Amino acid sequence: MPKISAEKLQLELAQNKVAPVYLLTGEDTYRKQEVINQLRGVLQPDEFNFHSEAADKANLGEVLAMANTAPVFSNMRLVVLTGIEKLRKEPKAALLRYVQDPLSTTTLVLTHNDAKKMKTEKALAEACTASGRVVDFAELKQAELTLWVKNKLAARGLTGDFDAVDLLCQSVGAELAALENEIEKLYLYTLSRENKKISKDDVLACIGFSKEENPFELANAILACNKNKAVKLIDKLLDDGEEPVAVLSKMTYPILKMARIKRMSEGGMSAGDIVHAAGLFPWESRLVSAARNFPSQRQFLSALNKIIDTDAGLKSGTISDPKIALKGILHTLFR
User: Fold this and answer.
1) What does the pLDDT look like over 198-215, one tens digit per residue?
2) Quick count: other Cβ atoms within 10 Å of Cβ 306?
3) How many CA atoms, within 13 angstroms, populate the side-chain half-sphere of residue 94?
4) Residues 166, 283: contact at Cβ < 8 Å?
5) Radius of gyration (C-alpha) of the chain in whole angstroms
6) Secondary structure letter of residue 295 according to DSSP
7) pLDDT tens-digit profile of 126-141?
8) Which residues, 6 or more positions from 115, have their beta carbon under 8 angstroms from its beta carbon?
9) Cα separation of 204 and 211, whole Å?
């Protein structure tokens, strides 16, 4: 059985097609747990025929003995071993031997959460490919994350306009459990109204901000090279009680993003390659065409040095006026 995509696995499980072994790789633990839940739904194991345990805390001999035992008053047994990247050499060798000849009445699910270590697990991956399914669950990026959010909104009877989905992805990132929690909040927020289209203001309200307090307003002003607006936002954030170190963090990320895009653009990379290499979301592709208006690499380096000095000064308490220090970074960047 070959290595398959997450989408094909979903289709197989929807058709009640189950393999004796699953190796779920990648760092997206949320979607892996979804697969385990689906398998429980398909196999319907009772408490005598289901076992789940973390690999580093398990007695692997007992777990494999359980996997090698016929189910009790049932057709199938489901055994889940999570975090197998933490197994040592000998237990991993025993696991490999089982995977090479698994019991047909047991479905064994293995999760591996370290993409770098997985590159050295060729024997295990090949054995799992031969006996069952190997499926990678890398963290969703760009268009995939947007589509995932839209599908989750649709499952709750909601739709989201471009700005709403944009803000939701920016504010939460690719942490799917947190995103699902925010979508549930949006569902409850709109429960009593007929209009089920989620707006940017709805998202801001549900994540704890008002229209006037968009958490990405400062970053957006910097990315737009709008120095005057960014300076005013620094004043507002600090006057409203925001910690100077937190404001510095909000400034640093967009500045580094601009520097990466500028360097790639000047290096002759295509727009599509830049979007991929810089890890941009689809709605950020406009930054590639805007790169010609970004500051020079020399200005970026000067601003970066100021960021390092300001960070050290804020944390050591040697900066007497954070406003001047933070605005100084912008003046250096956009001089």
Assistant:
1) 998 898 888 765 555 566
2) 18
3) 15
4) yes
5) 25
6) P
7) 999 999 999 999 888 7
8) 25, 26, 27, 138
9) 7
Secondary structure element (H or E) that encloses residue 24, with its range: strand 21-25
Please state, in angstroms and rounded to a whole number, the distance separating the CA atoms of residues 328 and 325: 5
Lowest-pLDDT range, 19-23, 40-44, 217-221? 217-221
* DSSP string across 106-169: EEEEEE---HHHHTT-HHHHHHHHHHSEEEE-PPP-HHHHHHHHHHHHHHTT-EE-HHHHHHHH
The two tokens of residue 34 are 């979804």
Query: In 34-70, which positions are buried (b, 16+ CB within 10 angstroms) versus exposed (e)?
Result: bbbebbbebbebeeebbbebebeebebeebbeebbee
Phi, psi of 107 (to 5 degrees): -110, 115
pTM of model > 0.90: no
Cα 284 to Cα 166: distance, rounded to the nearest angstrom: 9
CA distances 326 to 3, 24, 223, Å, are 50, 45, 16
Q: Which residues have CB under 8 Å from 150's CB, separation 6+?
A: 159, 160, 165
Only one residue has tokens 């727009």, namely 271
The full 3-state SS of 27-83, as one line of letters, equals CCHHHHHHHHHHHHHHHCCCCCCEEEEEHHHCCHHHHHHHHCCCCCCCCCEEEEEEC
291, 275, 209, 153: which is closest to 162 by C-alpha? Answer: 153
Residues above pLDDT 90, as percent of the chain: 54
